[in-house]
Design goal:
The protein is an all-alpha fold. It has 2 domains: 68 residues, no CATH class; 62 residues, 434 Repressor (Amino-terminal Domain), CATH 1.10.260. Helix content is 63%, strand content 0%.
Length: 138
């Protein structure tokens, strides 16, 4: 026999099953709306937020509507993505990164030109410049 607390949790989840498992686009929208409400009092709702976040993440990983986005993310070089984020945060352009060489070289790295990638030396220099661990670019 289940302890009373587990019965209460089971009954509560029966009212909002999308908290544990999203099955439809409508469930997904409800989950996002609930998440918006829960984060207003993060400390009180932390455990529920973690469960709901896992449910949302599973949906976003599997739903057809996100397949193109997921494929793009999977194909994106992590180091370049980190660099682009840092560049945006610091309002930098291709001419502002002497650590990577010429503007043309920076542009090729950022655009994933064949044979143009961040080297270990680049990663170390960028880590030093931005005050982040170079491993973020690996």
């Amino acid at each position: 026999m289940l302890p009373p607390a587990f019965v209460e949790i089971r009954d509560a989840l029966a009212q909002v099953p999308f908290v544990a498992h999203i099955e439809t686009q409508d469930d997904y929208q409800q989950a996002l709306e609930l998440m918006d409400q829960l984060v207003d009092d993060y400390d009180a709702n932390k455990l529920l937020i973690e469960i709901l976040a896992a449910s949302i993440e599973r949906w976003e990983d599997q739903a057809a509507e996100f397949s193109g986005f997921n494929a793009t993310v999977a194909a994106t070089d992590r180091g370049v993505a980190v660099l682009k984020t840092l560049m945006a945060q610091h309002s930098l352009g291709v001419a502002d990164l002497p650590e990577l060489g010429s503007k043309g070289n920076v542009s090729k790295i950022l655009n994933g030109a064949e044979g143009k990638k961040l080297t270990r030396k680049h990663m170390e220099a960028l880590g030093k410049r931005f005050g982040v661990p170079p491993v973020l670019f690996f």
